[in-house]
From TrEMBL, chains A, B:
It is an enzyme of class 1 (oxidoreductase). One of its GO terms (molecular function) is prephenate dehydrogenase (NAD+) activity. It catalyses: prephenate + NAD(+) = 3-(4-hydroxyphenyl)pyruvate + CO2 + NADH. Belongs to the prephenate/arogenate dehydrogenase family. PANTHER family: PREPHENATE DEHYDROGENASE (PTHR21363), PREPHENATE DEHYDROGENASE [NADP(+)] (PTHR21363:SF0). The keyword Metal-binding does not apply. Residues 3-291 form the Prephenate/arogenate dehydrogenase domain. It comes from the Bacteria. Pfam families: PDH_C, PDH_N. This is prephenate dehydrogenase. Its EC number is 1.3.1.12. Pathway: Amino-acid biosynthesis; L-tyrosine biosynthesis; (4-hydroxyphenyl)pyruvate from prephenate (NAD(+) route): step 1/1. One of its GO terms (biological process) is tyrosine biosynthetic process.
Amino acid sequence: MLNKIVIFGVGLIGGSFASALRKAGAVGEIVGVGRSTASLQRAKELGLIDRIATSVEDAMRNADLVLLAAPVAQTHAILSRIQPCLESQTVITDAGSIKGEVIAAAERALGAQIAQFVPGHPIAGRETTGPEAAIPDLYVGKKVVLTPLPQNSQEQLARVTQAWQLCGANVHMLSAQEHDTVFAAVSHLPHLLAFALVDECARRDNADTLFNYAASGFRDFTRIAGSSPEMWRDIALTNKAAILGELDTYLQQITALRAMLAASDGPALEAMFANAQNARHAWLQNIEKAEAQPEQDRDA
Amino acid sequence: MLNKIVIFGVGLIGGSFASALRKAGAVGEIVGVGRSTASLQRAKELGLIDRIATSVEDAMRNADLVLLAAPVAQTHAILSRIQPCLESQTVITDAGSIKGEVIAAAERALGAQIAQFVPGHPIAGRETTGPEAAIPDLYVGKKVVLTPLPQNSQEQLARVTQAWQLCGANVHMLSAQEHDTVFAAVSHLPHLLAFALVDECARRDNADTLFNYAASGFRDFTRIAGSSPEMWRDIALTNKAAILGELDTYLQQITALRAMLAASDGPALEAMFANAQNARHAWLQNIEKAEAQPEQDRDA
């Protein structure tokens, strides 16, 4: 039981976390903090939070658990405001898509109290944003990756793990570097590729004709190009080294594919396409298997 | 009213065409031809076709309309078998994703009778294939692109147009070259990019870890990498020149994106992402508007 949790950023991610813990009957008071008064008011009306903090000091008083669910670029500013009133029993976690830069920002802001920060990343989302989009089931069956610091105590790590498990999530542990490398490949690169494709098509003289005949394949391929430009600018810049590596690998792969096609090498093209089809099929089967047995998928 | 139509290839595309015309009460007899006896039997059991042709000659006798819905690479072989028994009242159309190479194959096979061939491409599909996947509503509200030949008569063009309109489709006209250029950009390129990404991930030592953390963004981006390797090998090879041009344009775009990121040029990255987000948003709004007013969208 958490007597008091504090959510910085009461949108989809923070609001759903609050809503899930409330539904699980696992929390006393939920306090919201944020830049937008309108969002905070709406979160209170929707019952996501019990009250809006009058100040960071007020929010942090007697807090058991703090979730940072604001854009990653605000991490240092928020933690700098938290630090002067951070009590020893409080554990802070976050929901940022990048872990290396978040940890660096946390170290600068928290100094010796860095042990109280357990970095995390829930692998869940929806097309919509804001408190209206928050739902208690957002994390059910989803993965949450924690990238614990050497300074974290077992008790602190367990508190954050249990909170996410109460939301229905399967908690996994990775190093921050492994996290950022893996997500550069399977999330950040595809986002940049989708943005780049739509941007390029939109700049052409015949863009209207192109979009007129674009169908469901194009629609799914580019769904992630509908994501927030500001958020993805920040992710690109904060995970720059890993993403540059992924872009180079992909440029090599496309150059190799181009050479196969230029040589009319049908067997090589078919082998590449078949390898991709098989790998994707096996992946989807594993997902279905994991979803059928959610308890066995829990690492922690 | 079409007294007799013939479907070469009674899978998703051919079977749905037959099923839609039947539902519209627009056809007398539907005859199926194909390489797979099992598929033909199943199509007959499902009521997609009235009977299986005993020979191509039998199929073509007194036919009003023929749809080629077999893989594009079989176009020349099928039309070569049709040509000796092609009667003057019969119109042939096809459903191939490529038009330039299909027309070249048709000219070689049909010679002076090329006037009876009206090339077409329905922009519709589903994840599943085969006669079991055929549904009468597959083409409702979807686009069908016809790329008429100078030799086609108005009557022949009208017969094919009306057949697709009876299926509920909106018929558009493009030149074959324009068709192949447009679809290289909005369909063929994204398919190759998706195949390339999954193939590259699957070859890595840490492929299991990568796929373990791949989420819904990766899933949608790579959905089209689940497509048929043989079909996409054929499409790539038959639309090679246009696709090579698209690959070069995209390689330039990714190289430019890489340079922005290497220079930590946040404003340039955000401008590219925002242009893509805006273009995609406007495109989806146009689709929704068109779907709300299907009749006004019909070009023909």
